[in-house]
């Protein structure tokens, strides 16, 4: 089912989400199906459960050929539950991001360049990956949602935060989510 996405200002987006306790349940699979359907409907690169008002540490992400991000690197379709992120170097990379909870805007956001992430899929199977580039950016953006952080809270230069049409008059708005 396509679910409404909460927008910035809704206090549910500021909460720290609760860990999933039981895997491979009907409720968990239904939640993931809703996240997936909603994300595809909106051509998003990722979506976190709190964005549809569900207080659980569940995110999905993935980019194959997304018309919204023609230049984005591909990211495997992933369901990530109870994630833990660990930077693999002190290097920081800045890049444009957007968010389905902050529609119409883009911001220039610093993120760890390389990181390891661990967690579980919907069946409770362990996930353990080392990633960089756009993949690393998307994971950090989505997992921030589980701690009540939206990307504008990480922007340092607010001249690089604004409406898509103003920032990218030529129409090329590469971004995450
Ligand atoms: Ni987002």
TrEMBL record:
Transmembrane segments: none annotated. Gene3D superfamilies: Peptide deformylase (3.90.45.10). Binds 1 Fe(2+) ion. One of its GO terms (biological process) is translation. InterPro entries: Peptide_deformylase (IPR023635), Peptide_deformylase_sf (IPR036821). HAMAP family: Pep_deformylase. Belongs to the polypeptide deformylase family. This is Peptide deformylase. The gene is def.
């Amino acid at each position: 089912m396509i679910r409404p996405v909460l927008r910035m200002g809704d206090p549910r987006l500021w909460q720290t989400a609760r860990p999933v306790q039981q895997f491979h349940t009907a409720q968990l699979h239904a939640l993931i199906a809703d996240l997936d359907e909603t994300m595809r409907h909106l051509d998003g690169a990722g979506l976190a459960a709190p964005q549809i008002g569900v207080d659980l540490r569940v995110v999905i992400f993935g980019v194959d050929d997304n018309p919204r991000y023609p230049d984005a690197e591909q990211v495997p379709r992933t369901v990530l539950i109870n994630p833990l992120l660990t930077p693999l170097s002190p290097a920081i990379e800045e890049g444009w991001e957007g968010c389905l909870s902050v529609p119409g805007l883009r911001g220039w956001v610093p993120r760890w360049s390389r990181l390891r992430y661990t967690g579980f899929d919907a069946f409770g199977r362990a996930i353990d990956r080392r990633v960089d580039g756009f993949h690393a950016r998307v994971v950090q953006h989505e997992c921030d949602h589980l701690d009540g952080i939206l990307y504008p809270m990480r922007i340092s230069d607010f001249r690089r935060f604004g409406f898509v049409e103003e920032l990218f008059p030529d129409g090329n708005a590469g971004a995450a989510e």
